[in-house]
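Schema walk-through. Below, the input block comes first and the output block second. Nothing else is stored per chain. Lengths vary across the set, and this one has 107 residues.
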Amino acid sequence: TEHAATLFTAIGEEGALAPTLWVLEATNTLTTAMRQKRISRPYRDSSVADLLGLPVTVVPLSPAEVVRTVVDHDAAYLALALDRNVPLATLDKALARAARRERVAVL
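--- output ---
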């Protein structure tokens, strides 16, 4: 989407923080799309390479930090934004709502 392309460009220019699971989650999303025949294997592989090339700093979080916000795997992203006082980049509507409830800016 256009919004995703804008976020990708911004991350490429400014860098980003992400919890340790972000690469696995992104790769799983692309692999699922490939299995559902929405994208090709070469596109998936190229996209994974592009993601790995982004200037993303991986930040480990403790389970206690994750549990205090949201109960699923998205909590790691929100916990990181809260901990570092940075905006959250997400296309997930539920995660964006949770972030706004915690007064975290959403990109």
